Amino acid sequence: xxxxxKFKESFLKEFEKLSKVDQLKIQKYLRERIQTAKNPRDFGxxxxxxxxxxxxxxxxxxxxxxxxxxxxxxxxxxxIGKRDKVYGD
Length: 89
Fold this sequence. Notes:
Layout: E1 4-7, H1 9-17, H2 20-34, E2 45-46, E3 54-59, E4 62-69, E5 74-82, H3 83-86
Parallel strand pairs: 1-5
Antiparallel strand pairs: 2-3, 3-4, 4-5
């Protein structure tokens, strides 16, 4: 079962600012681990408080914030950043 990965504009803007090496690592992680997983929750951690429906994945120093939409088999990638900045708003 393959999941579809969609990206919000906010993610794409931050993603473009990263180095090519970091971009490739993140793309590889999303493509090889998350997209092909039976359950993408096996690799991430749920967020709490006002971000209950969101999950985070860690790729080295970066955090990827996603929403998992089970009925569509879709992962909506919302945000990326370093730990000290990504959880802000």
